[in-house]
Structures are given as C-alpha cells and as structure tokens.
Amino acid sequence: MPLLGGFVADAYLGRFCTVLVSTTVYLLGLLLLTMSSVVPSLKPCGSDICQEPRKIHVVIFFFAIYLISIGTGGHKPSLESFGADQFDDDYPKERRKKMSFFNWWSFGLCSGVLLGVTLIVYVQDHVSWGIADLILTLVMASSLVIFCVGRPFYRYRKVTESPLTTMLQVIVAATRKRNLPHPSNPACLHETQKSEANRRRLCHTKSLKFLDKAAVFDETQDTIVQKQNPWKLSTVTKVEELKLLINMTPIWLTTLPFGICIAQASTFFIKQGVTLNRKITHNFEIPPASMYGIGAIGMIVTVTIYDKILVPLLRKATGNERGISILQRIGIGMMFSITTMIIAALVERKRLRIVEKNLLEGSISMSVFWLAPQFFLVGIGDGFALVGLQEYFYDQVPDTMRSLGIAFYLSVVGAANFLSSMLITIVDHITEKSGKSWFGKDLNSSRLDYFYLLLATITAVSLCIYVFVARSYSYKNVQSRRTADVANCHDGDDREVMA
Hints:
mainly alpha; 16 helices; globular
C-alpha cells in the first residue's frame, strides 16, 4: 500500500493532500474498529464467551482493518517525505538539519511504539480492547488536528508530472535511438538551460550508456517540434533519474536479509517471551508484546547518541558532512542484526536446555529479561540501518519521487516479512523430510536456535555482497545552479568507500 500511496502523492495529489486524505481514511478505520468492540450490536457476541462471532462484527472488523491499511499506505510515505521537504538542500544549515530530521523522526516514531506496546497493550490486557481502540482513535484525531493547524507554515512542492511516465519516456526514447553513436563529449547531450520548478539538474554519469541515447539529438530526424516531444528526446537529468533507480536495486536486494532478521522481533521473539517467567511482582506480569518496548528504547538511545555525540565527532574525523556515509551507516546496522541473531540463538539454546531438565515446568523458571539483549540489539541495528535506509531512499531517488522513495524503504520491511514466512515454510519442509522439523507444534519441540544461526549466516553473506555493491556506488550528483552544461559536472567524487 505505501508504494501506491507514494505514487499518488508524487504524481497526482501532492504530499500534503495525500497525508490529509489518508489520515482521514485511517481515522475512519479506527472509528469502525472501536465501534466493533464497543457498540453492543457490533460486538462479537452478546456474552463473554463466544463460540462464533456475529457476521456483522466480522464484516465491520475486517473493513476497519483494511481501511487502516489503506490509510497507512498514504500516511507513512507522504508524511515523512513531507516533513523532510521542509528543509532546503541549497542552504548548508538547513541541509544539516535535514540529516538530523530522520534521526528525530525515528525518535518520535519509537516513542509512540514504546507507548503502544506498554500503555496500550496494558489497557488491552487488563481493561478492554474497546477502551484501547478508543484511545488510539482520539490520538489519531488529535494528530490530524495538529497537522492541519500547521498548514499556513508548511513548504509545498508542486506536482508536475507522473515520475513513472518520465521513466518510461526515457526508455522509449533510448530504444528508438539505439542505433545512434554515443557522443564522446557529454556536453553534446540534450539538457535544459534551467532547473525545473520541482527538479534539480543532475550531472551526467558514465554508467548505463545505453540510456544516454535518449538524450542524443539526431540532426537528421529531430526537428524543433520533435525536440519538445519527451517520448523522442529526453534531458540528461531525466536519464540520470532512471539510472538512479536502476543503481538502487542492488542496495534494496542486499538489505532484504536485514529485514528478515528484524521481522523475528515481532514474531518468534514475542513467542519466546510467552514461555518465560514474566512476573515482576506477585500481582503484575509483563505482557509478552511489551518486550518489544526494549527494542524501541534501544533505537531511541541509539539515534540520540548518534545525532548528538557520534555525528559531531565523526564530522571532524572524516570531513564528511554526515559523519559517515549513508551506506556505511546501513552496513553497521546489518552487522548488529547478525550479532542479534547469534545472541538470540544462544539464549534459545539455554532455554531448551532448561526445558530438557524440567519437562513439566518447561522454561518458566527462566526470566523473560534473558531476551532483553536481543531486543535491545534489534533497536541498535534499527537505529543505524532503518534510519539509514529512510535517508538513503529519500535522498537518492529523483526529486519528483520522494514519497515513493520512502515507500521503497518501507517495501524493504514489507517484502522481508513475506520472505521470512517463505523461508520458514521452506526450512520446515526440508527439515521435516530429514527427520524433525525446526518448527514444531510448540517452541519446546522446535529448534529456533538453528533458524537464528541460519539467518545470521544469510545476513553475513548478504553483507559481503552489500559491501561490494556499496564500494562501487556513486551518490546522486546534483549540478550546481551556476553550472551551464553537463561537461562541467564532476563524476564520482561522492563514490562510496566502505571501511
């Protein structure tokens, strides 16, 4: 859904309107969800014990969930990109603030997650789901009001054309001119004299030379009228925008194993917590989902230290405005995810040994806080890799695709969850044939430790490929507003160097 929402924001509605519409849809979904838990005629059944829920409840409940999904699809990519749009890259002071924006965005997001998995989960478990849903609805309504109050103070970017149409135009023009010779001087390629209102000019790069044919002016065929036809002649900037998307694909693919690792925090890690001793006092027991709050704390601590301490120190040491490059930050997060899986495997192995010694009580004698290190490490890894991915996909996509850029980041997490389920199915099928499945009917008959070590191995291999790809990656090279032609652009000065 974020891919669709991001496209609509970039191509048609604009980011502000998309946030407004999608948040309204999200709020409507929350209202229906609350009604399905509070209104007597819409509740699952009339008594406390339900043999089967009423059909009207099922319809309202799932309709509410789908509305929330649709609302999320427009809200997530558009709101974050709209927030980053408030900073102007042409001014060094604002550009530095934009670099911090993604850290503090994640800080705020994780603060909300922390409240969600503690306060809201507690209300769900000890008061009622209806009251919890009502709280969430009021919070979302308040956020919508606050967002609208700020309307006179925002910066807005005009929607000019569909970014996907532009990409298609470059491909069509390059295919039509595939037989033309490639010019030896990039200054011979077609470019506009001024930056467009919503698009900065990009410098020419030497990669994917086939696409450069789209910007070659054929004197025998291209008349003045045809020169205005984007399906026959593209600018260097539009060609470079397509190159950006193609060059980002290997980064997207190599970060998927990292996403698979973090998917375990909201699935198997929580399931492990159910089997452990969660009592704090005689009358209070930690809800299993609340353990996820440790991960949120880990991310909050990481982004705070990173932004306030590490970045200033690294700026002096490396001379890089960001402290370290975006791809280096992502790579560090991937290393933390490998460490997380190894520690999770060791903790699970300890839990299984306790179960072997006491089959009746199982691992109830083992404190749930044995899971704290792996949750905290997930948060640290997210503070590096997830925040880095947000900044990378926002910064490196074409200027006209910023909402889609955030959607690409979200698609890493979404696709990784699907891949995690697929991997579990494949491993279950293979290990079952060999004698005993790693995923039994309960955790005590499973071997999650083996699965975690498998994920650590896959991520380690992926990290090696990622480093290779990142070392040869060239960042988006925006042309100076004073530069008159593409020949004056430098090429490769921002090339990624991985330590």
